[in-house]
What does this fold into?
Amino acid sequence: MTRTFFAVLLAGAAAAAVAQGAKGPPPHNVLQLSASGSVQVQQDQLVLTLATSREGEDAAGVQAQLRQALDAALAEARRDAAQDQLEVRTGDFSIQPRYGKEGRMSGWQGRAELVLSGRDFARITNAAGRIRSMTIGQVAFDLSRQAREQAESQAQTEAIEAFKARASELARGFGFAGYSLREVSVNSHAASPGPRPRMLAMAAKGPGFEADAAVPVEAGKALVEVTVSGSVQLR
It folds into this structure.
């Protein structure tokens, strides 16, 4: 057992020596840095969520009521559906027990959502105004993929140029003629400055509700930022 253990130690030491030799000498004159570029762009996509809730003593009855309300909303919204302009999809659909003050189950409650999204704000809000079985629960804005990709491309070009300029400036500052890239990573994200998406608490649409009443909406701007970070070898 002693000989075996000693042999294992020797093998481990040899492997460590080989691994250390393979790494080579530690790098010298390597500089870590990062730079970013940003573009502010108008949000061009509206995401409008309609919702309805039902309560009852029977789960199947609550589910049937929710499906009826959702089917009616889908039928109305699909009349104006158009690719990229108004896209219709279902959102959350859930049913769960309802409990009373003493902790005993007193029935069931459920919620269903319908999401309208796209670039044609007027088409979306007009369609939502005609839906009588659901009310508007949330209004949010976003960037379409086309707008996001275009903004990211501009911000990326700005970030790369800033990275190169910063690397050249630091190389000269440290007394070197230039640099070469060792490794680099590019990351992007978009943020919406200002207020968060509006949450609307609207009363059920009753007899006094005006048909085809569009909800007034106004999009803000999103900040798309790209960060380039990495290391350079000073030469």
